[in-house]
Amino acid sequence: MKKWIGLGLSCLLLTGCWDERQLKDQNIILGAAIDAPSKEEITLTIALPQPGNESQPTTTKQIVSATGRTVQESISKIDHKIGSGLQMGKMQVLLISKESVQHDIYPLLDTLYRNAVSSLNAKIIITEGEAEPFFRNELEGEPLYSHYYNSLIRSAEALTIVPKTNLQLFASPLFDKNDGEAAMAPLLAFNKEEKTAEVKGTALFDDKHMTGELSVAETTMLLLMKDEKEKEAALTYPVEKDKSMTIRVEEIKRKMKIHVPKDGPATVDLSYQLRYRTIDYPPDHLGDKKEVKEVDKKLSGEIKKSMEKTMDKIQEAHSDVLGIGLRVHAKDPDRFKQLNWDTAYPELNVKINVKAELIESGITF
Amino acid sequence: MKSPATISPFQLFFVLLQAQIGIGLLTIPYTAQVGAGKDGWISILLMGLFVQGGIAVAWLLSSRFPGLTLYEFAPLLVGKIIGTVLTLLYTLFFFSIVAHQLSLFLSISSNWAYPRTPHIIYAVLSVAVTVYLVKENLRIMARFLVLVSFLLLSIPFAILPIINHFEIHYLLPVASNGVGAIMKGSEKLVLAFSGFELFMWLYPFTEGSTKAKWKAAAGASAASTVLYSFVTFASYAIFSPKEIKVVPEPVLYILKEVELIVIERIDLLFLTIWAVFVLTTLMIYLYMASTGLTHLLKAKEHRKPLYVLAVLVIPLAIATENRETLAGIGDKLNSVSIVLLFFIPIVLLIVALIRKKREESV
């Protein structure tokens, strides 16, 4: 008898589920775009997928936009337009227009950090022009837009042409204006003629708004400077009058020395040891040791020049993406406060030293 | 009221470890930074040292009365009336820890995973599971606690994939906020470390030499100190010092980003593992509270008092749902626990030393 009472009770208690989210009642959002020309006007665009089957792949079914004062208000306005509940937990990409991040980006992201359902490994992307057309325009041969943008960024990350980031990694710098590190995110443009999206480089942030951008080549340089080479990183430089060469960076070692004298400005010494392989070298005479030395020397100079140019650019944007401020703070917090990093960073004297070394030339010399 | 079932020192180790690791595991990096900022992990190590002191006191005390629990030897030291008051105090303390942990458990799980499930359902389910085990004797409980302890290994494994996102510079320079801040950080952590005091009740039920018992208790506490400071260190290396101020459950939050090849949202998976740690803490404390009540009522066995307490704890736990009130209650419990975990045992030990009381001499 006792057993039966127990059984009955557990049937009553263990069934029922208040927090079930059935797939058939849910719209799973894989990607969203935000355009916020002013602080009070946030347009959210979402792409709803159409589940696929064996004969037909998953496609984008519907694009819906709504404007509200907060992101959540826009979401509920979208809810008014479509039948079933929105499910943000599977979001893969979040596109935000360049215009929207000229002012504070944080209000656009807060809801994603605040609610437990959101997925923080979604890629954050800044778009040239409005973000909405990235979902509205036709993409050649790509049925599922969010997936395409996600894989575009992932492959770009592997090639070291965009910084590796996601919503979570992006957040930390937003909170620490004065402690150094700055946020950055990939920059994407839409190519209407070819009906594709194109990686344009990196959006640089100072505090919570965008202050500058880097081209693809500069981004690679920056990531090398940050010692964040991914699977591959290719660089192209002129070698002779009308010939250029392309190298692949195999290994890069960084030494960062920070001098913070008690009085006077801080200085930074960056020295890099870079080992590379040639993957494109039209002059064809790498069999000669002397020649190799020449090329090494020339390349070291060229890379140094690009690094210095990139450094100038990030300093100009007030964007301390190398985290120099963080290191100065770690070394001497009192001096860091005295320095007033906001004004000290653009004036910072950075010395860069590069030593490139050929280790492999492919199967020909 | 001596239960015949005894446990081995090995089991004692896990009982004490599971008693310490509970709700605090998720929130300890946040709690520690309130006072100590980025040096919170040092506060935890420091607190671990204090706890070792507390264990030494408890051990010295208990080894004078090897066959008695604190409920039984306190009256011998300070008289019947104060002894009864102490029993009442400790029983109330254990009971309020159960209620507090349960309501925190409900609030965190509803915030993270089950926003629409009524708290009462969750409360009834967890208390039912707890009672189911606690109504048995200590040995059976201990076996279960040893069994689930392998889950503790999941903590370092969950954090492993994000190690390459660590920004060690967030933690530098070490101890720049001064010793005062570190001490202030430790002060808030007593509640997270509570559990070691149970040594004074479990001592007589543990077999083996006094030294083996001490080793088990000290080891358990050292293990939880290491675990706590590890998760705290990891949280501080992921979140910048200002960011951590807005993240009350950093350990879950850092797991939100982890993406293994086939699984996403490790935080939700970890939540279920953590629920086991919370339940084990509830079990041990509910057991302690019910044996306390048994002692007060001079009842024969702890089952009936247990059922009474279990029914009482549910309304108490669901009465306080919001985080602000819970944090306030937590602070008060923390202050009380400084007295009950450190102060009273020390006083008792001093009395025992002065009056030269031992179990044989009574």
From TrEMBL, chain A:
<keyword id="KW-0309">Germination</keyword>
<dbReference type="InterPro" id="IPR008844">
    <property type="entry name" value="Spore_GerAC-like"/>
</dbReference>
<dbReference type="Pfam" id="PF25198">
    <property type="entry name" value="Spore_GerAC_N"/>
</dbReference>
<keyword id="KW-0472">Membrane</keyword>
<keyword id="KW-0564">Palmitate</keyword>
<dbReference type="GO" id="GO:0009847">
    <property type="term" value="P:spore germination"/>
</dbReference>
<keyword id="KW-0449">Lipoprotein</keyword>
<keyword id="KW-0732">Signal</keyword>
<dbReference type="Pfam" id="PF05504">
    <property type="entry name" value="Spore_GerAC"/>
</dbReference>
<dbReference type="InterPro" id="IPR038501">
    <property type="entry name" value="Spore_GerAC_C_sf"/>
</dbReference>
<feature type="domain" description="Spore germination protein N-terminal">
    <location>
        <begin position="19"/>
        <end position="187"/>
    </location>
</feature>
<dbReference type="InterPro" id="IPR057336">
    <property type="entry name" value="GerAC_N"/>
</dbReference>
<comment type="similarity">
    <text>Belongs to the GerABKC lipoprotein family.</text>
</comment>
<dbReference type="InterPro" id="IPR046953">
    <property type="entry name" value="Spore_GerAC-like_C"/>
</dbReference>
<feature type="domain" description="Spore germination GerAC-like C-terminal">
    <location>
        <begin position="200"/>
        <end position="362"/>
    </location>
</feature>
<dbReference type="GO" id="GO:0016020">
    <property type="term" value="C:membrane"/>
</dbReference>
<protein>
    <submittedName>
        <fullName>Uncharacterized protein</fullName>
    </submittedName>
</protein>
UniProtKB/TrEMBL annotation, chain B:
<feature type="transmembrane region" description="Helical">
    <location>
        <begin position="268"/>
        <end position="286"/>
    </location>
</feature>
<feature type="transmembrane region" description="Helical">
    <location>
        <begin position="73"/>
        <end position="99"/>
    </location>
</feature>
<keyword id="KW-0812">Transmembrane</keyword>
<feature type="transmembrane region" description="Helical">
    <location>
        <begin position="335"/>
        <end position="354"/>
    </location>
</feature>
<dbReference type="Pfam" id="PF03845">
    <property type="entry name" value="Spore_permease"/>
</dbReference>
<feature type="transmembrane region" description="Helical">
    <location>
        <begin position="12"/>
        <end position="30"/>
    </location>
</feature>
<feature type="transmembrane region" description="Helical">
    <location>
        <begin position="306"/>
        <end position="323"/>
    </location>
</feature>
<feature type="transmembrane region" description="Helical">
    <location>
        <begin position="189"/>
        <end position="205"/>
    </location>
</feature>
<dbReference type="GO" id="GO:0016020">
    <property type="term" value="C:membrane"/>
</dbReference>
<protein>
    <submittedName>
        <fullName>Uncharacterized protein</fullName>
    </submittedName>
</protein>
<dbReference type="GO" id="GO:0009847">
    <property type="term" value="P:spore germination"/>
</dbReference>
<comment type="similarity">
    <text>Belongs to the amino acid-polyamine-organocation (APC) superfamily. Spore germination protein (SGP) (TC 2.A.3.9) family.</text>
</comment>
<keyword id="KW-1133">Transmembrane helix</keyword>
<keyword id="KW-0309">Germination</keyword>
<keyword id="KW-0813">Transport</keyword>
<feature type="transmembrane region" description="Helical">
    <location>
        <begin position="42"/>
        <end position="61"/>
    </location>
</feature>
<feature type="transmembrane region" description="Helical">
    <location>
        <begin position="119"/>
        <end position="135"/>
    </location>
</feature>
<dbReference type="InterPro" id="IPR004761">
    <property type="entry name" value="Spore_GerAB"/>
</dbReference>
<feature type="transmembrane region" description="Helical">
    <location>
        <begin position="217"/>
        <end position="239"/>
    </location>
</feature>
<feature type="transmembrane region" description="Helical">
    <location>
        <begin position="142"/>
        <end position="163"/>
    </location>
</feature>
<keyword id="KW-0472">Membrane</keyword>
